[in-house]
Amino acid sequence: MPLMRAIGVIRKSRGERWSREEFEELLRSAGYEILAIVEQVREEHPRYNIGPGKLEEVKKLVKELKPDKVIFANRLTPSQAYNLWKELRVDIIDKWQLVLEIFEKRAHSKEAKLQVELANLQYELPLVKEAIRRIKMGDRAGFKGMGEYQVHQYLKHIKYRMGRIKGELEKIRAEREIRRKKREEEGFVLIALAGYTNAGKSTLLNALTGEDIEAKNQMFTTLDTTTRRFKVKGKMLLVTDTVGFIDGLPPFIVEAFHSTLEEIVKADIIILVLDASEPWKEIRRKLFASLNVLRELKALDRPMIVALNKVDLISDEDAKEKELLVRETIDGRANTVGVARISAKLNQLEELYNLIEVALSRLPKFQTFEIRVKDPSKLGKVLSMVHSMGDLLEVEYSEETKIKAYIQTGLIRELTKLGVSLKRIS
Ligand SMILES: Nc1nc2c(ncn2[C@@H]2O[C@H](COP(=O)(O)OP(=O)(O)OP(=O)(O)O)[C@@H](O)[C@H]2O)c(=O)[nH]1
Ligand SMILES: [Mg+2]
């Protein structure tokens, strides 16, 4: 397939933190050949977002280079998008539609596809309403080549599809809820991997579990949620990998991906993965972006471990310095358990395992019990269950074996089924 050709436009307000590299990376990830990037530092112009002078420059470039699209790094209001389209007569999209185009390419599961479509429709709805408003005011330009009648039909279609998709997502969500309940009853502790896109979340899940899910050096490789079992020092836990974050993830995407992101909200522990190989300025920007999403999800109260990943790419001193900076930055902003320096790629995870142990000890899901086993034939089974779900503290062998253990409360049911008696000590 020939590459789509695009002109990129970036408008920066004074003092705004923006990453041109990231915008270019997004354009490439979405499959565009970048014909030109136009930059401007000025406050937002209400009509065109960029200033009228810049608009003339873009117009000339459009005539000369004939791009398939002009892509803005800024969020455009529906009326700006409409005005720009009228002036330039070429497809106009902004950063968020660009992100959605990437999502569209990467969506594999039915749920991910529906979520992407919903986000797209949610984005288009105000644009179409704006076009209708203009048409009513006597504007003859139409909307993307559609006349008045077609635009009205299109609006109806959007509303109908949104209703249908929400219904279907609700069903999928209910199924997910059932699976989650079952997991909870089983008592497994759930750990969610969160973090900026390309930080190494999927690589980490693979390293923890021996899985082989796709991990690539590109943005938004993962859209689907994967949950797998793994063991830390003998304890069975669950870990979930899901969609990555990006700076200023807008509410309509968070909303569309709600049920996917909910996996993070429902987790007992969050591992926030950061790419330590980048300059501190970038790490800091992505750390704040991630904390913002977690705040929006109301997940900041969850015990959080920061995994400073890809330390194999930097020196020890650099890693230590960045660890310190992360500690300082995050202090008081989240319920942090600690910062671990890791390499998911090289399976260097010792510090992370230690912090997971610390985090587990703070969870109400773990408690100390006295377990009495009368039937010796059950003893082996009980001991192996205790080992996989907690720590064995003491065993007193006599006619009736007494075991003191620190276990996940989900084990209570399983043990009771075996006919042993349990008493909570702490
Ligand atoms: N050198 C090095 N590279 C790593 C490490 N962990 C991940 N990577 C690389 O970083 C890139 C991104 O890794 P992924 O695991 O796909 O990242 P992700 O966070 O799942 O990304 P999204 O799914 O896009 O959100 C890949 O090229 C990985 O091979 C690491 O510890 N060291
Ligand atoms: Mg991934």
TrEMBL record:
Its cofactor is Mg(2+). It holds the Pfam family MMR_HSR1. Keywords: Cytoplasm, GTP-binding, Magnesium, Metal-binding, Nucleotide-binding. Its main location: cytoplasm. Mg(2+) binds at S202, T222. GO terms for molecular function: GTP binding; GTPase activity; metal ion binding; ribosome binding. GTP binds at residues 195-202, 220-224, 241-244, 309-312, 343-345. InterPro entries: G_HFLX_dom, GTP-bd, GTP-bd_M, GTPase_HflX, GTPase_HflX_N, GTPase_HflX_N_sf, P-loop_NTPase, Small_GTP-bd. Residues 189-364 form the Hflx-type G domain. It comes from the Archaea. GO terms for cellular component: cytoplasm. The keyword Nucleotide-binding applies. It is found in: Cytoplasm. GTPase that associates with the 50S ribosomal subunit and may have a role during protein synthesis or ribosome biogenesis. Belongs to the TRAFAC class OBG-HflX-like GTPase superfamily. HflX GTPase family. Monomer. Associates with the 50S ribosomal subunit. This is GTPase HflX. It comes from Pyrococcus horikoshii (strain ATCC 700860 / DSM 12428 / JCM 9974 / NBRC 100139 / OT-3).
